[in-house]
Amino acid sequence: MSDSFMVATRIAMTREGFDRWLDTPAPGPDAIANPGEMFDGWFWDGRRADSGWRNAAVGVTPREFFAERARWTGSGTSVLLHREGALEAYLFDVGYVEREVHTALLMFAAAGAFKTEPASDAVLFWAETGGGLREPDWRGWLAVLSVGVDLSRFTPASGLPPAGLAESITALRPVEDRFFQLVERLGEEEESWDWEAGEPFTTTTPQDELFVDPEVLGRPRRTPTRPER
After folding, report:
1. What integer pLDDT is reported at residue 1 of this predicted model?
2. Which of 54, 82, 55, 53 is nearest to 66 (CA)?
3. In this structure, which long-range contacts are made by residues 46-53, counting pairs with CB atoms below 8 Å and at least 24 apart in sequence?
4. How many Å apart are CA 19 and CA 215, to the nearest integer?
5. Residue 226: its pLDDT value, please?
6. How far apart are CA 165 and CA 31, in angstroms?
7. Which of 12, 21, 95, 153 would be 33's cystine partner, CB 3.0–4.6 Å?
8. How far does the chain reach from its first CA to its final CA, in angstroms?
9. What span, in angstroms and rounded, lies between the C-alpha atoms of 47 and 204?
10. For 72-96, what is each residue's pLDDT tens digit?
11. Whole-angstrom distance, CA of residue 109 vs CA of residue 31
């Protein structure tokens, strides 16, 4: 199993709803109907998730959480945007960092209250060396959280609609592309970094509004001057 772990989702909501969600504190595990069944029906089937929820940063807002990640140049990074009428998120961490994963899942569960579409949205959790999305029938998926307007719950593959994960994965391709743009830029910066200076690698690239909504960092949104990639 890879040491690279990802959480990704796309949840339709208005700009106003997104801004309100940013200031909604992460709820407790009871915001999810079956938190202990996180891995049921997936690659880690039979592994209980109960203990992991103790590490979640309950009470922290998405604004605080993603601002911290945007300023963090350690072993993880993320993309968080409001784009084309939806919250889009793609989180990467080296290792299964329970605080980051479980906090994000609780925040996305809370996003259900701001949804504009009645159908449930999928939050995907998986591990993959390349960091990208895999095919819908891939056996390595670790968990899928179905987020509804009033209820969020972990859903095994057998409980998904006939289309399975295909529609969710297709919808996530644009934010996946942003993630790889971020990875490419970080890689170029790190290669040109003067490591002989004996200083830690630093970068502001994850704070670019291509990768994080300016509202997260308290910045005004700029009028686009070129088409989004």
Report:
1. 46
2. 82
3. 49/143, 52/98, 52/101, 52/102, 53/29, 53/102
4. 8
5. 45
6. 23
7. 153
8. 31
9. 38
10. 766 789 999 999 999 999 999 999 9
11. 7
d(CA 123, CA 143): 8
Q: Scanning the structure block, which residue is given the tokens 């329970």?
A: 98
3-state DSSP helix/strand/coil % of the chain, to nearest 5: 40, 20, 45
Identity at 4, one-letter amino acid code: S
Contacts of 226 (CB under 8 A, 6+ apart): none
Q: Going by DSSP bridges, is the β-strand pair 143-147/152-154 parallel, antiparallel, or unpaired? A: antiparallel
Assess whether pLDDT exceeds 80 at residue 227.
no
50-71 per-position pLDDT tens digit:
889 999 999 999 999 999 999 8
- In one-letter notation, the amino acid at residue 108 is F
Tens-digit pLDDT profile for residues 139-159? 999 999 999 999 999 999 999
Token pair for 155: 């859903």
pTM, rounded to two decimals: 0.91
Residue written as token pair 């919808």: 171
